[in-house]
Amino acid sequence: MRIGEVIGSITLSRWHPSLTGAQWRLTVPLDAQGIAGDATGRLEPIAVFDEFGAGIGSRIAIADGAEAAAPFQPDTKPVDAYAAAILDHIEIN
Q: Is 66 within 8 Å of 79 (Cβ atoms)?
């Protein structure tokens, strides 16, 4: 699981029927430096499937790869990155 910051929304003109009812967010994954506010800790943006309604600037927990589809079992959805949670607070010690 990774942490990312939502930087935009993605609009689809066509989609797989199983994806109806959610939105896609353009999200920048963050490493520890990025979480602390350092711009060098911002990675390449990815498209994230979002059922929670994260807004621009929200920090989210991202499940990616095979784990991204796990919450939908036994159904399958063609997703590679899923917003697992909207994060209210992150503390790094």
A: no
State residue 27 phi and psi, 5-degree precision. -130, 140
Cα separation, 74 vs 55, whole angstroms:
29
- Domain limits of the chain? 2-87
Average pLDDT (45-50) is 95
Contact 61, 83 (CB under 8 A): yes
- On whether the CB atoms of residues 70 and 42 are closer than 8 A, the answer is no
| CATH architecture of residue range(s) 2-87 | Beta Barrel (2.40)
pLDDT digits (tens, 9 = 90+) for 62-87: 999 877 777 766 777 778 899 999 99
pTM of the model: 0.87
